[in-house]
Structures are given as C-alpha cells and as structure tokens.
Amino acid sequence: MKSFTMKALAVAVLGLAGTGSAFALCPTISAASATPGGGGAWSSQTVTAATFGNAATGLNGTSCALSVSINNGAASNTKGFVTDLSPANETHYRARFYFNIAGLTGLTQANRQARIFSALATTAPAGAGAEELIVNLVGGGVPSIRFVIGDTTVAGSTQKIVSASLPTATTAGNYRVEFDLNSTAGTFRYWVLDAAQDNTTFNDSNSAALTNASGTYGSTTITDTGWSGVKQVNLGLFGTSTQFRQANQVTGQPLIVDEFDSRRATFIGQ
Amino acid sequence: MKTSTMLLALALGSAFAGSAFAQCTNDGTAVAGVDTPPVTINGNTCGKNTALASICSGGNFTNGAGTSVIQLTLGAASAIQLSVVSTTANFNPELAFISGACSSLTGCTVDDTNGTQTVPATGTDAPSAQPAAGNQNFVFVTDLNTESPGCGAYGLTIAGTLPVSLQNFSVQ
C-alpha cells in the first residue's frame, strides 16, 4: 500500500532552508488570525486574546517552534491555534506532536485544563459534537494528557475518556504525544512520552516498547463510525477552564508545540 | 422554636452539564428531614453520571470514573461552606457548585483543594456562583485527576449561616 503523508511539518517551520547555523531562518508568524497560518505551513490560524510567537528553541532538533499564551484578563473565548484542513474524512488517522509546558507554571491543579488538539469530522451522530477527538492538558502535581474520543456506546456524552500522566522528562517540560485513531478497527492507541528518550518509530509490532518506563502506551476500544472521519484538526491552546486562565494568563507563560506529523497509513518516523 | 430552612435532596439521576443533552432528573432518592447544618452526606461517585464528560462550561474534563450530583434547597441566598472527604485511596475529589438550572453552568466553579470550599469563593476559584433561595443549587463531587480508581466513597459536609424563621411560643 502506498504510504501517504497528510501533514509533516514543524509547527513554526524549521531553519532547514538556512545555512545550518544559528542564523537558520524561522518563519514570521502573524500575531493575529491569518490564512495561511503558522508562518505558511498550516491552512489557517486563529488568535483571540492570545499571543502567538516563535519559541527560540525547537523541541525536536528544530530551530524554533510555535508558542502560544493567553493574554492577561482573557475570557473564556481566548484561543490561539493553527488549523490543518488537508485530512479528507479520514477513518484512520495517526498523528504526533511535541509540546513543552515549562512556561505554564500554574499547571498545578487538576481543574486547570486546556485543549491543545482537536480533530473534527464533517458530520457526527445526532446530538454529538463534531469533535471526534480532543486532547486535553490537565494540571496537577504531575500534569497529564486526557484523550476524549467520540464513542456512541457512552450514553449521554458519547465521549470516552482515557488519561496518561506525563512522564519524567529528561529535558524539562519536553514531551511527545502520538495517537492512532482507527474507526474501522474500532481502536484508539496512544503514547505519552518523554521527548528526549522515546523517539522510537512505533509500528504494530513494537507499540509497547517504550524506552522510558515512566512513559505511557495505551489502547482502548471505541465505536466512532458515526463520525464521518477526520476533516479538520486544530493544534494550540484553546478551550481553557476558568482556573487555567487565572493561573496561566500572564503573557510569557506559553505552551510550545512543534513537529506535528499526521499519517493515513504509515507509521510516523518512517 | 426555630426552624432552619435547609433541605437536601440527592439528585442522582441524569445531570448532563456541558452536554448537548443537558437535563437533570431527580431520581427520587431524596434525603428528607435534614435541616440542621452542618450536615454530612455520604456517597460514592463510582459509575454515577458518567455522561458528565466535562463540567463547568466544558473546560474541565472529568477522569470518566463517575460524578455525584447533589441538589441543595436553601431558604434564602446565603454563603455556604462545602467540604468533602474521601475514604478511598487514589480518589482525590473535586467540588463544583452551580446555582441555577442543573444544566446551566453559569458561574460554575471547581475547587481542587480536596477540602473546604466556600461559596461564593475567592481567589483562584473566583468567581463562583451565589447560592440562591430555592432548589436550584447543585453540588458536583467528581475527580479530575488522572488516577485509579479515580472514584469512590466520600463524605460531603454542608455548613453555613442559614436563614432562621422564628415562631411565637408561650411560657406557662
């Protein structure tokens, strides 16, 4: 089967076109909503009461990365994210990105939560939202990642929830999250890893072969065929809880994201 | 004789705050005759209202293990104190309070201290709902933390300076 890569890019793209030195170029990212977004690599970007910018250091050997922070006094509609519209109603969607939370100093309690990724479908089951998958960042003594997956077997919410604590990171605050949403097989697999230690290319035979024991690999069954498949994904900071905004609203407390990659059929890293 | 006008009713039915199906149903398991604060309700969140994927405007996703919903009937708007104690290991409960329809999350606040919450709250939990007279006050006991089992037994205590009505009496 032919491999097909839908999107493989550093969020704030790279300095690869530069000289390979410290002068490698990073894209100029508009501070406001724009099309295309993320310095040109994404379909669009949406910024409301938030600040977009280039982080000086990338998260996976890249020269820079996208940073997003919410503004002081921002209300519940605050958001800053980039959007990819290249998926075509994908019933099998695999993606990975890196993120850094070192700047989110207020991420210390479980009621401080924010969405950092969502995958939306064009159509959804009656009464359900368009989000087929939401990735939430949850605060705490050890912060965690919470996956909320569309599942029509869960009465009322039609959302199945699985969580994974962030592992001990060798580089402060640098993490890798990867997932495989397979509607046809009825499975959702996920990895939450230390970015520095676990750079393995996971395939179907080594899914649980983690280098760092504090990382997480999990798999759960889902019933999400009622959604028409992934058509749009958002990556950034949005859907924040009241307490998250109150604790992380000073500009300069950014979430940094980088090295997003999505596939239909192949394994990321191949 | 003085009569406190605080009554508690457990509404353990459907409570889909944050869901497109938002509705609340009292399942008939009312706690009657509880009228002298402070009062303590013992319950267990496991498997309760799992349709509550999130609370407080959808900003806080629960861990999915269960959420108890308790309806409070108050004689008048007055500050109350809520506290919850867990007796289950790896169940560190959070408290949320809303005033208004159970399906309305206006002013919803979540306390993550696993201890006492005063409503209305101050500090990082502000703004919070103002308790209202009548039965449109709801307390949510849930667990937002990533832990296992992430649900379990709890004791919820409700206290406060409640309105008191006085009745004439005679001494012979």
Short description:
The complex is a heterodimer of chains A (270) and B (172). Chain A has 270 residues and is mainly β. Chain A has one helix spanning 242-247, and strands at 5-9, 44-48, 50-55, 65-70, 79-84, 92-100, 113-121, 131-138, 144-150, 159-165, 174-182, 187-194, 216-221, 230-238, 255-263.
Describe the structure.
The complex is a heterodimer of chains A (270) and B (172). By secondary structure, chain A is mostly beta strands. Chain A has a single domain, classed as Exo-inulinase, domain 1 (Jelly Rolls). Chain A contains one helix and 15 strands, in the order E-E-E-E-E-E-E-E-E-E-E-E-E-E-H-E. In chain A, strands 1, 3, 4, 6, 11, 12, 13 and 15 form an eight-stranded antiparallel sheet that branches. Chain A has a seven-stranded antiparallel sheet with strand order 2-5-14-7-8-9-10, with no helix packed on it. In chain A, strand 11 and strand 12 form a beta hairpin. By secondary structure, chain B is mainly beta. Chain B has a single domain, classed as Sandwich (Jelly Rolls), CATH 2.60.120.380. Chain B has no helices and 14 strands. In chain B, the strands form four sheets. Chain B has a six-stranded antiparallel sheet with strand order 3-2-7-12-9-10, with no helix packed on it. Chain B has a four-stranded antiparallel sheet with strand order 4-13-8-11, with no helix packed on it. The N terminus of chain B is likely disordered. Classes of the chains: A mainly beta (270), B mainly beta (172). Chains A and B meet through strand 8, strand 9, strand 10 and helix 1 of A and strand 6 and strand 10 of B.
CATH architecture call of chain A? Sandwich
Distance between the termini of chain A: 14 Å
The fold-level CATH name of chain B is: Jelly Rolls
Q: Count the E strands of chain B.
A: 14
Mean pLDDT of chain A: 86
Give me the CATH fold name of chain A: Jelly Rolls
Overall SS class of chain B: mainly beta
Q: What strand line-up does the widest sheet of chain B have?
A: 3-2-7-12-9-10
